[in-house]
Write a structure and sequence with these properties.
BacA/B, globular, 11-stranded parallel β-sheet, Polymer-forming cytoskeletal family protein
């Protein structure tokens, strides 16, 4: 996850939070509770241990998973799956790190580098994104 700047604001969806819908943010977000819907972000995302995300898609600058995610993940920089995390869905990133003890079911698509990602990546419909990633 990118280093959190002290001047940046961190948003936390707490353990008792249940969010259903579309979430868009520019700063960093930590999810501790339950989320379902879609995430389109320019900031970093941490899905903490115990959190459950059932998504159409997640797009963020970087994504760290300690909890459970169902749905496709796209990161402009990297996706990191930590020990004990559960991920069911395809992942797209320039860098991917999968620790021992991760339950991962899906496909991995390596993006060549950040230079190959245009600014429209985070505003594309999922079908457009799939076509762009396939070349």
């Amino acid at each position: 996850m990118k280093k959190i700047d002290k001047e940046k604001k961190l948003t936390v969806l707490g353990r008792e939070t249940v969010f259903d819908g579309f979430l868009k943010f520019t700063e960093d977000l930590h999810i501790q509770g339950a989320f379902s819907g879609a995430i389109d972000a320019q900031g970093a995302l941490l899905i903490e241990k115990g959190a459950v995300c059932k998504t159409q898609y997640i797009r963020a600058a970087s994504i760290i998973i300690e909890g459970t995610v169902y749905g496709s993940l796209t990161a402009a920089d990297k996706i990191e799956m930590k020990t004990g995390s559960i991920v069911h869905g395809d992942v797209h990133a320039a860098r991917i790190k999968i620790a021992d003890g991760v339950s991962f079911e899906g496909a991995v698509y390596m993006l060549r580098d950040n230079a190959g990602i245009d600014g429209n990546l985070f505003s594309m419909h999922p079908e457009q994104l799939k076509q762009k990633l396939r070349g």
